[in-house]
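Final report, results section. Input specification for complex C-07:
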Amino acid sequence: MRRVAVVGAAGYVGGELLRILIGHPHVEVVVACSRRQAGRQVDNVHPNLRGLTGLTFVEPDALDCVDVLFLATQHTQTMGAIHGFTRLAKQVIDLSADFRLSDPEVYRRYYGVPHQAAELLGDFVYGLPELHRDRLRSADRVAVPGCMATAAILALHPLAAAGLIEGGASVDARTGSSGAGATAGPENLHAERSGSMRVFAPVRHRHEAEIAQQTGVAVRMTATGVEAVRGVQVLCRASLADGADERAVRQAYRRAYAGEPFIRIVAYTRGLYRLPEPKILTGSNFCDVGFAVDPASRSAVLVAALDNLVKGSAGNAVQSMNIRHGWPERAGLEFPGLHPN
Amino acid sequence: MRRVAVVGAAGYVGGELLRILIGHPHVEVVVACSRRQAGRQVDNVHPNLRGLTGLTFVEPDALDCVDVLFLATQHTQTMGAIHGFTRLAKQVIDLSADFRLSDPEVYRRYYGVPHQAAELLGDFVYGLPELHRDRLRSADRVAVPGCMATAAILALHPLAAAGLIEGGASVDARTGSSGAGATAGPENLHAERSGSMRVFAPVRHRHEAEIAQQTGVAVRMTATGVEAVRGVQVLCRASLADGADERAVRQAYRRAYAGEPFIRIVAYTRGLYRLPEPKILTGSNFCDVGFAVDPASRSAVLVAALDNLVKGSAGNAVQSMNIRHGWPERAGLEFPGLHPN
Amino acid sequence: MRRVAVVGAAGYVGGELLRILIGHPHVEVVVACSRRQAGRQVDNVHPNLRGLTGLTFVEPDALDCVDVLFLATQHTQTMGAIHGFTRLAKQVIDLSADFRLSDPEVYRRYYGVPHQAAELLGDFVYGLPELHRDRLRSADRVAVPGCMATAAILALHPLAAAGLIEGGASVDARTGSSGAGATAGPENLHAERSGSMRVFAPVRHRHEAEIAQQTGVAVRMTATGVEAVRGVQVLCRASLADGADERAVRQAYRRAYAGEPFIRIVAYTRGLYRLPEPKILTGSNFCDVGFAVDPASRSAVLVAALDNLVKGSAGNAVQSMNIRHGWPERAGLEFPGLHPN
Amino acid sequence: MRRVAVVGAAGYVGGELLRILIGHPHVEVVVACSRRQAGRQVDNVHPNLRGLTGLTFVEPDALDCVDVLFLATQHTQTMGAIHGFTRLAKQVIDLSADFRLSDPEVYRRYYGVPHQAAELLGDFVYGLPELHRDRLRSADRVAVPGCMATAAILALHPLAAAGLIEGGASVDARTGSSGAGATAGPENLHAERSGSMRVFAPVRHRHEAEIAQQTGVAVRMTATGVEAVRGVQVLCRASLADGADERAVRQAYRRAYAGEPFIRIVAYTRGLYRLPEPKILTGSNFCDVGFAVDPASRSAVLVAALDNLVKGSAGNAVQSMNIRHGWPERAGLEFPGLHPN
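Structure output:
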């Protein structure tokens, strides 16, 4: 059993890490850190873990050496503390945005502050197994992708890599409320958020940078908060290159994702769930990807869906850990999601 | 046109008062007070009022004399400021809990603090037209009932008054999230509150005191927050007195509410909406009441539903004002609710 | 008082027509037709109308002459019966899709059947007052736009008319469940639809044809069903013409919609409701329109929101009737929507 | 590996059985029957199972012998076919209501039809491990309890058994929409059901009979459909016997449920989840039970929550199978539920 710890464990991503890691056959969670909730029992904050853990949150200072350290800490605040964290564990898996972008200048543009640990950017592997599995086999530093970025990259990558896309793409992303975190504010008040369709980022959403970096496709992204606690869905719209048709698109996905344990191609002409839908993915590590091609305009609409706290963050992180340690990739990640839900 | 003002106008009850009063044919809203939002445009906080008002929130100190003053202020904080408010307006309509209970000792027991203006308790008429219309015709001080209390009293009163109830009653109340107000906290975070059934008061809910005072029935009340932004529903369970049957129950309701503009008796044996359901009452001032009698156990289940921000507070307040001024009781309150919604 | 009748009155659009018309100061609803519910009381099907109407649904055959006849009937089935209807009323307002498209060939392509009354297409005025108010003043035949089309046209028209858009536009539409009507099927089962993000039309949604016809902009549209009972929101993405910037965009909207009673320009940089959001429009006839411009890519994201059963259908129909009869345009349509909701 | 089959596998309970059994370490699902969906792929109807099963639904006639047969068939229709089913498998686990009540006369009273296989009633063990584990160790015929009955029995039993309850109890049950099954009808149309609080059984709900039979407590039950897809919560109100206080209540629960793998006692004075809440139990086999005691009235409010498709049916069935076969009771049932969800 490897010893693992989670920093930022009282938040929603942190709680999801705990849930997955507590049920994982090859690790033991030895520490759950939270400055905000230090001293409180873990299952008091994450009541789904009642009966499954006796842990109490501790201050980050109380952290000791572990085999794998997960950082579910804030964007722009992780980079300042990173040197302290890397001393504590052979493998550090960061779920914040701070080490996802290889170019510190792009980071500054999208996050509004200069990068404080630019010298380490090259050490981090982007934690998306479907694109970087080989490098993840030996990665001691992993930067886990953003939830909407994960969905968009998994939708765009096979077509981009196969040269089927012409020009850029537009991405319309929809997200549930847990993506905004566990800190209460007017924007996530139930009475305001319930049933809403809130366009919180009409232009220049931060995940554009990750998507472009990973796929080579210039994207314009819009993000809308919709009713759901968990779940991200993206619609990507792109023009197809000369000669590309529905068959070519389907083939590109099939090739790219053959054997992938967590990608399902969902593109049917009938049925309620003929295209990817996050509702049935809650709690699962699947990312479903699908598409529709309009031959008249030679364009494609690509759709991807996932649970923002699982494949969009904690699950992806654990999948990356599994790869590094040579464990079965599905270890701890076998829950398939519910129907109905 | 009478001049009216609202204190606490940035909250949810305050916003609902503004919506109703702005559309009211006989009044003009001259001031909207909010300490928290002073200086901000009203329609910025209540975006449904865009294009309908040019008002800006002002500090309470900026209040000047008006004809009717509505207090949508906090429980336990209204009583301390009441003398200042009563100097400003001939009619003061208080939507807090501070002047609902005639006995200051009961107030202390349920609200945990001694009453600071007990000498004024006798001046306030309980603002429930169905029980106190005559006194409201000349009432310059009105204490508007609590939302769950309104529903429970309207369900219990006809039977209690007709002597059809034996012993006490239990009340199971369910409420939407707007009842908790517009101040963000962990308890009304969307991710926690969405789809929940949260028993936030298993015993001794404060509204028990109002219900007992108004109906003479001793009640034990349980309150649960359910998914809905607006809406209260109560289920009251009572034993029927000797000889009371379904016909007697129906008759008691019919007599009690004949001619009432905002009470509808909803007790059918078929149809999706055969008993009162808050979903179709959103935005309306109706309180629907219904019942089912179980002859075997000689007991009755009484059901009432309303919109907690309208008949459960702001609408009831305006109805009371209409009565005092001799205006049609429906003035400003004609919206019937939506189906579906 | 003009005498009006509604055909298809048991459906959701029909029920909304009844709600608005019953509260309308200048008309009397004399007949509510429904083949499916004939013989049943109207307020049994639409429980929000309890106490407001004593009408019973009748078979369409029982229809007699009225001043205004509203058709809330099915697409592809209205055209076959239209001659019968036009004999019954001076003004016929059709809320189906059958008379919206001026070119029968386009109709056939999008609706899959040949048009059965193509000779009448020229008699119908497209019932969008913001674009066709002058023609509506004398229109005896009105074809009310589709709900998503209404939103998209109102978002695109001002820019298209001012020559600010270059090339086509993509439209991402989200819609609540009432748009699918009142007939139960697997697709609108609560357990399947609740919290879903269902891409039911990834390409070639029917409303594309209306939007292109009205704005001259070629659109590619995607439609997704999201959690909400009422409400449509569209995001339109377009490239701006040379020299067009945010100021020009804002000016185009201001000019186009100056004095419009039901259009509000909502494009702020702060606040929860800084862009149009259907949640606060439930029950109202407003269509809020807003935008964000990305100077870097010289593109704009246009957002519009409305209640699909009001401005997206029944309300728009009544607004058109008001114009034809010289009544105040807001008559019957004054409900502003709720916050929170 | 034991061979198992599910009849009624296209419904919601059937789908949940498939999900659990497919992930179960000791069984293999060999047949999924559904008359309605015969010939269709299982994962087309239950899209959460994509990639996990290649099964196709077959007609019930195609059933062959298996080790365990699960019947997720309709109430009142299972009993007529039971003889055919019992020939096919050593263990038959019936999830319908037909074999839960030992007295055929009570069955007739609550289900409205005479029992067609009363001679078999004695063969069935009531599948609630917390009350009947010993008998379940050798039970070849199991009748799985109703979802609301399970919650109410688990709340009432410890107090009833310890003699702490005086007189009967009232039960207020709330349930999500999946309990109504997968067949579309007006009552489960999203637009009608969303956000509703529908008192569909104000008196004499069928589960009263099971609760009384199992606990010896006469109950009066009210059932309300609330917004949620999954989840049942019951509030039971009872008077406490002389001398019973909060400590005695807590002790009774602790004793009754010591060592139970799926019961958690949740009765805190603080925290959002201080009493049982179905929201965090989705997908899990836990039943959380809690209570609050009001010393003044010497009464208790007991609260229990579970996922109606798991501990309220499919999970409980699998737990019973595990017991019969000597497998770990948690096998296949380890998913803990999500926070937030």
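The CA atoms of residues 158 and 256 of chain C lie 6 Å apart. The interface with chain D takes residues 12, 176-178, 182, 184-186, 188-195, 227, 229 of chain C (CB under 8 Å). This concludes the modelling results for the funded period.
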